[in-house]
Amino acid sequence: MSDERDPNEPGNEGPNPWVKSLMIWGGIFLGLLIVVTVFGNNSQPAGEQIGYSDFRDRVAEGSVQSVQIAPDRITGTLKNNESFSTVPVATDTDLTTLLDENGVEYSGQAPEEPNVLLYILLNSLPFILILGIAFFALRQMQKGGGAGGAMGFGKSKAKLLTERHGKVTFEDVAGIDEAREELEEIVEFLKDPQRFSKLGGQIPKGALLVGSPGTGKTLLARAIAGEAGVPFFTISGSDFVEMFVGVGASRVRDMFEQAKKNAPCILFIDEIDAVGRSRGHGLGNSNDEREQTLNQLLVEMDGFEANEGIIIIAATNRPDVLDPALLRPGRFDRQVVVPVPDIDGREKILAVHMKKVPLAPDVNARTIARGTPGFSGADLANLVNEAALLAARRKKRLVAMQEFEDAKDKVMMGAERRSMVMTDDEKKMTAYHEAGHAIVAVHEEASDPIHKATIIPRGRALGMVMRLPERDNYSYHRDKMHANLAVSMGGRVAEEIIFGYDKVSSGASSDIQYATDLARNMVTKWGMSDKLGPLQYEASQEGYLGMGQTQRTMGGAETNKLIDAEIRELVEGAHKRATQLLTDHEDQLQLLAQALLEYETLTGDEIKDLLANGKIDRPDEPRGPIAVKPVQGATVPKAGKKFGGTGDAAPA
């Protein structure tokens, strides 16, 4: 086999360009210094070095044949042809007389010319090093800014995607058929434009992919690149924005220049909301760098100069913050919604990801899809990966249904924390808390069925009751909202009934937060208050200063008081409803809490069997009926008594 490796493959990039360049220049400088040193000092005197007094003695003895006298050195030859050198003494004025008396030939010698090149090179070394470090640091900062070089600020960072990066086709895209069909039309136009143009049709100039995170927007764009067979440039919206004013606009111009040279082609801008936010929200001067970049992008997409053959595809999960000028026809003619997949879509997505995993015969993709409502494509890919990791950890050769169920629980409820030590009192409190949620959910007709109840700490919760809808829900009715409010209060009410009002814990903090938020939305956004009517009283604020905030849009002080009173009435009504249900079915509450203390985790079917038959049928763990040991506590609190509580993560 050949040992040759592609330098473009990951892991074969070679040395860092900055280090490589520094090594080259350092080698050049070192070589020059050696050459100058070797050839610049060829006049170095040779022969034996003797003292000046010894030199005079040898002249007096008559053993010196000739000498050459220079201001800083005397060199000469003895009569036996040996050479010597010495350093003269400036105060000796009788040297020439001594030489004449002993018949020594002597001559003067001009002073040596200094090595100017070596002098300049040595003295300029610090400046050369400083300039070299500054040059390479600047080049490193701008690495990837186009064609390279220290002044490549305005060069586009768009990368040409090739098959070497991993070809993706529409066969790899599942669960989002409508979005795929709309984009397949663009691919067909690129392959056969005459079929559309002869009827007067024009290909859309741009398509905006809109969807929640993880739904497959980038995967769709890669599939278009794999199917179209034309150059495909990809860039992120954040690559345009820099600290230098004007750089983003320059990069937009350079990007479209590259695209024109490769037309017809596709230009994909990921996370376009990083550069396409609505104008006018800048702090201080609104004409900031981001808006200059957006203006240039608008002009390039649909300005005086036509960009024939350039199709722009962009992706975002925040279409609400994009500038309206960016969304008009002629720029982004189509907005393709990439939704969260339904049960059929989830089944197809699971089938795609399961191809890479050795499956056991009992794995049913339809069952897994039914139990994962609301999961995106990325969530399902993560679910399959977690199941494969679990099987490997358990040293199995195939991934069975049990691994998928455990992986689903881990993804939806968090990892188990069995190492967390809880006292018996805390376990009892958690068991009755979760049993309260479950009993209310069982007896509320509009509530979703229970999937699993556990008192094993998971994630940040000490226990959890997980409910899953029987089908995909796209809207919620008022009766279901009231049922959810009652279920959220079930844990706190169970603590009040069993342990007394003074012994309730902070475990209901997340339940109270959920109930309050739901009641607030019912009153202020969804018009479900009879006293306030079908009006919107709160709206989300966008922009740099209002991200993630809500603000009352109408009504004065009296209206605000009425809104707060309606929210309180909804939550307290749910508390009363839960109290009534748990009082009427206190025997079931005791039974389920004891079963949770004994088994720790129960499925929804096991809870149904327990409430119907008083026991749980587990063939691998044969046990008799659950022995109920009621916890003696206070009576049910009187109506009108306050409830509440705060706390960190605890029973959900």
From TrEMBL:
Homohexamer. It is found in: Cell membrane; Membrane. This is ATP-dependent zinc metalloprotease FtsH. The chain crosses the membrane at residues 22-40, 116-138. GO terms for cellular component: plasma membrane. One of its GO terms (biological process) is protein catabolic process. Residues 203-342 form the AAA+ ATPase domain. Binds 1 zinc ion per subunit. Residues 614-623 have a biased composition (Basic and acidic residues). One of its GO terms (molecular function) is metalloendopeptidase activity. The active site is at E434. It holds the Pfam family AAA. It comes from Parapontixanthobacter aurantiacus. SUPFAM superfamilies: FtsH protease domain-like, P-loop containing nucleoside triphosphate hydrolases. Acts as a processive, ATP-dependent zinc metallopeptidase for both cytoplasmic and membrane proteins. Plays a role in the quality control of integral membrane proteins. CDD domains: RecA-like_FtsH (cd19501).
